[in-house]
């Protein structure tokens, strides 16, 4: 509500009340977006540097409002997490991404994997292994073509339940990757314990590695760490040919970033990136 009577009767900080109002507005918006089916998935290619070919796409959530605006997840994901609405949204993302990937395979394209971001809240509030199992069953996608992106924070929670869930997901044949690697607090012990398949080097390191030797040594260290533990490594946020070449020299063969493609709608993945299978 607007303060008609001036500042005299305020018993709370008006700035704070605006924050609360804004949160409630977004939360209501999210509920409506679920009802009105306003969420869409964009897909960003992950590319092998040697061949320039796509081998995977990351599914990234967008909220398409009625006036045609495209809202990025950074503005609403945290509110979706705190309100628990991330559960139905996350389930929809997983189902839609797996369904889309299965359709591409059925259309005769050479198979690629799809990766889906799963927030720690989804692991806390639901049985993610059961959800993954159901979605694979429902869509008919073979587990080897699904990848789950989690953050270091999830591993650090050090709970038996989460360890168990991740093991069950692994044992289905689904790949696990650690997103934004290097920005959290994961210890090498957790890496050894969970044996994720893939480390994704956070884009903040890639962004500055050409002019900052310190950032470059972090990138280089993560690449070597991954390889010595038998993991794959992907560099995120690659925006230039110079960065791609440097990564290749450092031994990182898989990349994702605006230099190759921004996240795009599924039709554009089909038209520009997928190749017809030879078999
Ligand atoms: P993320 O998982 O680290 O995704 C990468 C983000 O970097 C994406 O932002 C992508 O558009 C952006 N990006 C890609 N290449 C480049 C580049 O070359 N330069 C720069 N500067 N940025 C690049 P987006 O799509 O806005 O997503 C932001 C974050 O929201 C994601 O970060 C992820 O943490 C979260 N998110 C996205 N979709 C989902 C989802 O379905 N579920 C959950 N739980 N989180 C999601
Ligand atoms: Ca991600
Ligand atoms: Ca990331
Ligand atoms: Ca991120």
Q: How would you describe what is shown here?
A:
By secondary structure, this protein is α/β, with parallel strands linked by helices. The protein is built from 12 helices and 9 strands. Strands 1-2-4-5-6-7-8-9 form an 8-stranded mixed barrel, surrounded by 4 helices. The longest helix is centred in the first third of the chain and has 22 residues, at 14-35. It is globular. The chain binds ligand C2E and calcium ion (3 copies). One calcium ion binds at residues 179-180, 200, 236. This is PAS domain S-box-containing protein/diguanylate cyclase (GGDEF) domain-containing protein. It comes from Alicyclobacillus tolerans. Residues 23-277 form the EAL domain.
Tell me briefly what this model is.
The chain has 12 helices and 9 strands. By secondary structure, the protein is an alpha/beta fold. An 8-stranded mixed beta barrel has the order 1-2-4-5-6-7-8-9, surrounded by 4 helices.
Mean pLDDT: 92
- The helix/strand class is alpha/beta
Shape call? globular
Secondary structure: number of strands: 9
Radius of gyration: 21 Å
> Helical element count?
12
Taken in chain order, the helices and strands follow as HEEEHHEHHEHHEHEHHEHEH
Q: What is the topology, as strand order, of the major beta sheet?
A: 1-2-4-5-6-7-8-9
Helix content class: 40-55%
Distance between the termini: 64 Å
Unreliable stretches = 1-5
User: What small molecules does the structure contain?
Assistant: ligand C2E, calcium ion
Q: Assembly type of the shown chains? A: single chain
Protein name: PAS domain S-box-containing protein/diguanylate cyclase (GGDEF) domain-containing protein
